[in-house]
Amino acid sequence: MDMNDVDPVRTRIRDLERRRYAAMVSADADTLEALLSTRLIYTHSNGARDTKVSYLAKVRNGTFTYTSIDHPEEQILVDAGCAVVLGRMIASASWAGVPKRLHNSALAVWVDEGDAWRMVAYQPTPIPDH
Fold first, then answer.
1. Contact predicate 123/48, CB 8 Å
2. Which of 17, 43, 54, 109 has its CB 3.0 to 4.6 Å from that of 121, i.e. a possible disulfide?
3. pTM of the full predicted structure?
């Protein structure tokens, strides 16, 4: 990859991450459907995993909801059609009606699928309270 292409890719990925988190808070499954790869593996902070189909079903039926999400990005690594976002995910959420406060270190993997960049994997790790 040409080094001149890296910053525009980082800018694009940063925008896609903002759109994804906004869609999570607003339960906008249609936007999420466009942003997520059909190959998605979404791991939750409790260790449960979802495919794109099962994740979107849970968004649509309200299994999990988010009232707020803060996502400070620490680094975006770009190489050969792949971008890895390292950061945090601090959120107020509800899982099956049970309120949750999330404070995770997070890793998101985006791939260039030709027609668009899409997220293919997400992995949060809970940060223990100090």
1. no
2. 109
3. 0.91
